[in-house]
C-alpha cells in the first residue's frame, strides 16, 4: 500500500514568513501477518513560497490578518486548497514567538491550514528544528564529531550542538539581522533593539533612532555581535557582555567543536560574497553575514554547507507515522486522545551516565520547551535497557520522577515513551512511587526523536494497546 499525501510547512519568524509544500509518500512496511506500520518512504519538495517580511502592527504585535492573507495568497499561487492538505506544521519562531498575540495568530492559522502540528517554538526547540533542518545532525554522524549549527535570523541566533547524529546541547542569543532596522529610502535608523544599543555603547559606538545609518558604525556593531557568536562556541573567551546577550542560555563551555554550519537568513551572506548592497533588506543582516564570513568562526572551525539556510526551520512539515504501542503499557486514567505532545528524547550518553545523569538531563532539557519561563506538557522518551532488574526499575522510576518535578508541580500527567518493552512495570512503579497522586501514561515499542510530536488515541484491543501518530517535522536532511 502506497499513498502520496500533501504536506505544508508554515514558518512565521522574526523577519520572514514563508510556506513550503511537499509530497510525502507513505507505505505500510509490515508483512501481511503483522500489525500495520506506516512509514515515510519518499518526500519531494514541490513548492517554495516567496519570502515575505513578517507583518507587525507594532513592535510587540503580529498583524494576524496580514499573515493569514500571505498564506491564502501562497495557497492560490501553488494551486492548493486547504482540503488538499493532509498534514503539516505551523510554527512561530524567534523574537516573533515573544509577541503578545503569537498564540492567537497561531491558532487562527491552524484552523485555516488543517489539523496538524502547531507550536510556538521556544528558543531551544527552535534551535533543534533549525539544526536538523540545516543538516548539522547528519554532518555530526558522518564525521563522528561535534558539529554546531548557528541559525542566524532576524531577532535571534539559535545554536544546536550535535555529536554522532544526536543532539547534545542548545543555546540562543539575541543577535540577528533585524535588531537594527533602517529605512531603505532615507537610510534613517527607525528601530534599535535595547540589548544591541547596550552592546554598541560597550564598544564606544553611539547610535540612535533617527540617525542616518553610518556604515562604519554599523560594521563595528556587527563585528561586536560576531565576537559574541565566537564566544558562544568557545572560539574566544566569554566576557560579561556575552551573558547580557543570552536569550535564555548558551551551550556549555568545553566541547571540542570541530565543524560549524550556518542557517537562517543571514547565513546566505556567510556562504556567499555579494555585499554590494549593505542595506538591501532595510537592516544589518548583510553586514553581519560579511563580518561572520571574516571571523574566527570560519577560520578556527571547519565550515560545512547547510542543506537549507533561510528555510532550515521548516522545509516541509508534519508527516504522520502511525504506530501501535507495545501490549505491555500502563495508563492510570483514560486521558485519551492526546494531541500534539512534544517529545524530549534523552541522548544515549545521558542514559549511559547512569540514573543521576538521567535525572539531571531531564531536568535541564525540559527547559528547552519553556515559553516565557513557563513549562509546558512534554513526553519524555528513553531507550532504557532490556530485561532490567527489580532494583534497576525502582531506580529508573525515581530518576524519571525527580527529573520531571517541574511538570508534576504543574499538575501535568506523566508521559513516558520507552523503546524497549518495559512500560508496564516501569509505569506501575512510577505510579506507586508517586503514591498514586498523578496520572501516569507509560507506553513502549515506540521510537521517536527530539522535534517530534505525538498523538495518542483511545486504547484498542480491550485496552491493551494504544494507537500513536508520530508527527515528524520533515527536513531535507
Verbal overview:
- The structure is a single chain.
- The protein has 477 residues and is an alpha/beta fold.
- It folds into 3 domains: 2-121, 2-Layer Sandwich (Nucleotidyltransferase, domain 5); 125-303, 2-Layer Sandwich (Nucleotidyltransferase, domain 5), CATH 3.30.420; 325-472, no CATH class.
- Helix content is 30%, strand content 28%.
- It has helices at 64-78, 102-113, 123-134, 136-143, 194-202, 215-232, 240-245, 268-271, 285-293, 296-299, 348-352, 355-365, 390-403, 405-409, 423-433; strands spanning 2-12, 16-28, 38-48, 52-53, 56-58, 61-62, 85-92, 117-120, 146-152, 157-163, 166-173, 180-182, 189-192, 257-263, 302-303, 319-324, 330-331, 338-345, 379-382, 414-418, 440-444, 453-456, 467-472.
- It has an 8-stranded mixed β-sheet.
- Strand 9 (146-152) and strand 10 form a beta hairpin.
- Helix 1 (64-78) packs parallel to helix 2, helix 6 (215-232) packs across helix 9 and helix 12 packs parallel to helix 13.
- The model has no long low-confidence stretch (mean pLDDT 87).
Amino acid at each position: 500500500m502506497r499513498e502520496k499525501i500533501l504536506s505544508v510547512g508554515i514558518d512565521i519568524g522574526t523577519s520572514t514568513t514563508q510556506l513550503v509544500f511537499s509530497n510525502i509518500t507513505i507505505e505500510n512496511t509490515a508483512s501481511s501477518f503483522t500489525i500495520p506500520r506506516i512509514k515515510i518512504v519518499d518526500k519531494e519538495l514541490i513548492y517554495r513560497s516567496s519570502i515575505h517580511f513578517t507583518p507587525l502592527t507594532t513592535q510587540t504585535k503580529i498583524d494576524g490578518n496580514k499573515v493569514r492573507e500571505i498564506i491564502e495568497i501562497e495557497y492560490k499561487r501553488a494551486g492548493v486548497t486547504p482540503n488538499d492538505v493532509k498534514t503539516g506544521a505551523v510554527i512561530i519562531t524567534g523574537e516573533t514567538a515573544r509577541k503578545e498575540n503569537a498564540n492567537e495568530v497561531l491558532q487562527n492559522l491552524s484552523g485555516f491550514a488543517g489539523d496538524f502540528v502547531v507550536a510556538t517554538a521556544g528558543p531551544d526547540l527552535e534551535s533543534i528544528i533549525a539544526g536538523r533542518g540545516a543538516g548539522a545532525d547528519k554532518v555530526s554522524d558522518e564525521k563522528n564529531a561535534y558539529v554546531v549549527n548557528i541559525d542566524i535570523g532576524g531577532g535571534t541566533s539559535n545554536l544546536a550542538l550535535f555529536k554522532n547524529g544526536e543532539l547534545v546541547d542548545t543555546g540562543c542569543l539575541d543577535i540577528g539581522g533585524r535588531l537594527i532596522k533602517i529605512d531603505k529610502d532615507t537610510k534613517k535608523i527607525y528601530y534599535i533593539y535595547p540589548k544591541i544599543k547596550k552592546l554598541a555603547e560597550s564598544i564606544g559606538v553611539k547610535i540612535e533612532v533617527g540617525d542616518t545609518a553610518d556604515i562604519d558604525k554599523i560594521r563595528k556593531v556587527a563585528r561586536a555581535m560576531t565576537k559574541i557568536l565566537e564566544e558562544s562556541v568557545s572560539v574566544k573567551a566569554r566576557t560579561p557582555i556575552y551573558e547580557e546577550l543570552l536569550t535564555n542560555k548558551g551551550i556549555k563551555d568545553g566541547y571540542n567543536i570541530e565543524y560549524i554550519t550556518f542557517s537562517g537568513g543571514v547565513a546566505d551572506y556567510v556562504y556567499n560574497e555579494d555585499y554590494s548592497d549593505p542595506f538591501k533588506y532595510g537592516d544589518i543582516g548583510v553586514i553581519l553575514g560579511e563580518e561572520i564570513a571574516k571571523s574566527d568562526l570560519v577560520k578556527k572551525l571547519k565550515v560545512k554547507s547547510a542543506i537549507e539556510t533561510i528555510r532550515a526551520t521548516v522545509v516541509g512539515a508534519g508527516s504522520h507515522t502511525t504506530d501501535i504501542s507495545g501490549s505491555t503499557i500502563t495508563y492510570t486514567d483514560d486521558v485519551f486522545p492526546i494531541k500534539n505532545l512534544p517529545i524530549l528524547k534523552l541522548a544515549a550518553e545521558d542514559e549511559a551516565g547512569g540514573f543521576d545523569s538521567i535525572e539531571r538531563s531531564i531536568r535541564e532539557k525540559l527547559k528547552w520547551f519553556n515559553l516565557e519561563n513557563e513549562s509546558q506538557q512534554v513526553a519524555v522518551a528513553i531507550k532504557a535497557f532490556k530485561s532490567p532488574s527489580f532494583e534497576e526499575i525502582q531506580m529508573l522510576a525515581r530518576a524519571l520522577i525527580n527529573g520531571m518535578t517541574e511538570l508534576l508541580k504543574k499538575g501535568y500527567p506523566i508521559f513516558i515513551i520507552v523503546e524497549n518493552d518495559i512500560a508496564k512495570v516501569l509505569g506501575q512503579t512510577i505510579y506507586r512511587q508517586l503514591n498514586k497522586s498523578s496520572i501516569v501514561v507509560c507506553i513502549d515499542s515506540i521510537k521517536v526523536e527530539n522535534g517530534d510530536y505525538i498523538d495518542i488515541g483511545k486504547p484498542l484491543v480491550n485496552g491493551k494497546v494504544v494507537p500513536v501518530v508520530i508527527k515528524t517535522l520533515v527536513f531535507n536532511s
